[in-house]
């Protein structure tokens, strides 16, 4: 399972040990980290980057979010960029873990009502204890990709539905299955 972990680079100035420990723990739990930017960046140099370098960083960040199954964001130090990262991950239906140090809860994020997004408070001594279950919960929230072959006739129908109802084909199929699940009393009893 792939994880993208990030934080504002200036976080390293005051909370470097926390950032490095989070990164190390995620890898230690067996997750594949898709970027080492946050543990390799020099914050002072980063904030003096040229426009070209910032465009490159933005593109790498977007690619990392897309590649990851889970996005972990440390927000102890407030940052509009981290809000954007969280929103982008949410738009891409990624599971998101928002970490913050005790007594530094970001109020804005606490208003997000989405079961794929968790806000997790930690201290350095409790980090391992709270991070592992948060990642496990996030892993349970990841959609499963399901591919199958269909006839051209069904493909044409799904394309027609998509155009007529302005609804992605996958959403249409998901709704059909969910409706059938609700009606199926035998399945309801097995849950």
UniProtKB/TrEMBL annotation:
Alphabetical list of Gene3D superfamilies matching this protein: 3.40.50.450
Protein name: Nucleoside 2-deoxyribosyltransferase
Taxonomic placement: Bacteria, Candidatus Beckwithiibacteriota
């Amino acid at each position: 399972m792939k994880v993208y972990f990030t934080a504002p680079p200036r976080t390293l100035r005051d909370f470097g040990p926390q950032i490095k420990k989070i990164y190390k723990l995620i890898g230690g739990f067996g997750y594949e980290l898709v970027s080492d930017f946050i543990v390799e960046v020099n914050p002072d140099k980063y904030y003096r980057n040229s426009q070209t370098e910032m465009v490159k960083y933005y593109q790498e960040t977007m690619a990392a979010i897309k590649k990851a199954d889970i996005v972990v964001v440390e927000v102890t130090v407030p940052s509009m960029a981290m809000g954007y990262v969280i929103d982008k991950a949410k738009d891409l239906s990624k599971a998101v873990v928002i970490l913050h140090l005790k007594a530094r809860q970001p109020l804005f994020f606490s208003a997000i009502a989405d079961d794929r997004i968790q806000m997790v408070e930690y201290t350095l001594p409790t980090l391992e204890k709270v991070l592992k279950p948060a990642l496990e919960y996030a892993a349970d929230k990841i959609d499963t990709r399901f591919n199958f072959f269909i006839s051209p006739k069904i493909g044409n129908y799904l394309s027609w539905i998509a155009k007529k109802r302005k609804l992605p084909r996958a959403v249409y199929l998901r709704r059909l299955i969910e409706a059938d699940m609700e009606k199926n009393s035998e399945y309801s009893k097995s849950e």
